[in-house]
Specification:
The protein is of the alpha/beta class and 260 residues long. It is built from 9 helices and 16 strands. The longest helix is centred in the C-terminal third of the chain and has 18 residues. It is globular, with a radius of gyration of 17 Å.
């Protein structure tokens, strides 16, 4: 076991990469994995451990309780900057607590916001016992809808391109937002042209609507043709392999992707 119960519905976990994390004890998505395995998404964890370094600027969109934020924050050190976005009202305080716990809060900037394509109030589905399933949701869905999947609330969205435009560059930007991921990608705007070195995001087919997949296809084509970006896939052993956007769009059900 990599952790123990510390009371008040919290467990303290020591991930394999180092550091400490406080997680909700009743969570059934991330907490059991970290308690028993000590890591989450080992391939991506390996890549970030290898490539993120001191003095870099990193951004974690959908930071959850800080698993990747702590990993990256430790590696960029006091000379670097770690920026986190997490709109979940229960997870955001734990994220802030974990950055303090690991002594990286002074070089970190936290925002209880949803990184989006524009500044507006957006719907957010919060799933309390499956927190990794919490996600931005369609504006067509009713607010305060409560069922076995959770409850839909309003959170503040921010135009991520405008919010980050002041940065000289971004070495790594990781996106984990579940549904409506295309809105976050579209929100990056000109940041992809010359500021973002590595963009990491997930493509999970069953969470994307047909028109969103078409938008992603067009976006990846523009990044390759106009900006000279390469599309890489994270393989199970932590390797990066170049792939064609057409194959990803047409055949992949789930993929962790890197644009660089």
């Amino acid at each position: 076991m990599y952790g123990s119960y510390i009371g008040k519905n919290k467990v303290l976990v020591r991930p394999k990469y180092g550091g400490k994390l406080i997680l909700p004890a009743d969570d059934l998505s991330l907490t059991p994995l970290l308690l028993t395995e000590g890591e989450y998404q080992p391939a991506l964890t390996t890549i970030l451990s290898q490539y993120v370094g001191r003095g870099q600027i990193v951004v974690d969109v959908g930071a959850h309780v800080g698993y990747y934020a702590v990993l990256m924050g430790q590696r960029v050190g006091t000379e670097g900057t770690c920026i986190c976005y997490e709109p979940h009202p229960t997870l955001y305080p734990l994220l802030a607590e974990n950055l303090i716990l690991n002594g990286i809060h002074t070089e970190s900037n936290l925002y209880p916001l949803a990184a989006y394509s524009e500044q507006k109030r957006v719907n957010f589905l919060q799933v309390e016992r499956l927190t990794m399933d919490s996600t931005l949701s369609s504006s067509k869905e009713p607010l305060c809808q409560e069922d076995e999947n959770g409850s839909t609330i309003e959170v503040q969205g921010v135009a991520i391109c405008e919010h980050l435009h002041h940065l000289p560059h971004i070495d790594f930007l990781k996106i984990s937002v579940g549904r409506k991921g295309i809105d976050t990608l579209l929100g990056l705007g000109d940041l992809m042209k010359d500021k973002i070195r590595f963009l990491i995001f997930e493509f999970e087919r069953n969470l994307w609507e047909k028109e969103e997949i078409s938008e992603l296809r067009e976006l990846l084509f523009i990044y390759r043709r106009n900006y000279g970006k390469r599309l890489l896939e994270v393989e199970s052993k932590g390797d990066l392999v170049e792939v064609e956007e057409q194959r990803v769009i047409e055949t992949c059900h789930y993929a962790q992707l890197v644009l660089c």
